[in-house]
Amino acid sequence: MINKLLIIVFLIILPGFTFKMECQKISFGCKAGFDLAYITQETTQDFPPSFSKDNFQLKSSFDFGVLLNYQIINRLQVQIEPGFTEKGTQIIDNINHFREIYSIGYLNMPITVILKPIQRINIEAGTEFGYLIYKKFMWLNSLESANGYVKFKKFEMSGFYGLAINPFGNFFLTFRYTESFTPFLNKMSYSDPGAGPTDYYKYFNKYYSIGTRYFFGKKVILAHPKTKKSNCLEPYPIKKKNK
User: Does some domain include residue 37?
Assistant: First the structure.
């Protein structure tokens, strides 16, 4: 679903751009965000699972990292964002007073393509590669829980899209939606007293993020590889010294 949306976004936006060539620039920065994490499941058994889709609820989470932004032309940038994200969900059954909280930590490498329709607005989309570093479970007021032999996959691939607003200076406010293409879990078994063992297949992470981004100092202007000179305007006016 998300990959189709990304293709539609680029097909709509790209024809409307008139790119003006200018100097290439590199910027460095940092990021931090508040997330709402969620899990979707794909079931293959004939009998209904112990938990319905409504039992899966959003879980508050977070992310942080560093930024390397490469401006190719004045309205097109590529950005890498290595960092950390905690994903997961909470499973709530108010009738049986059952609650589970899943916290799943990943080292991430998002690769972002940024289009700038106007000066202070970015339209962003890209791919995120994740490596699992920990998983934690909390069971509250429950008599049963997931079996201990559950094994999570180490690697995850996701896609994302969103907006970034630049209200002032080097500060950005970002809004993103991320959904995994690959499952972090292929099978999980629960023991249901009424129906017996229940198997779920293919759990997928996704999350919504509201974040901040800050770039340090001036942008680095790349010189021409042959002449070693730049024909670009300096980011700030240069004051001439009086003789």
Answer: yes
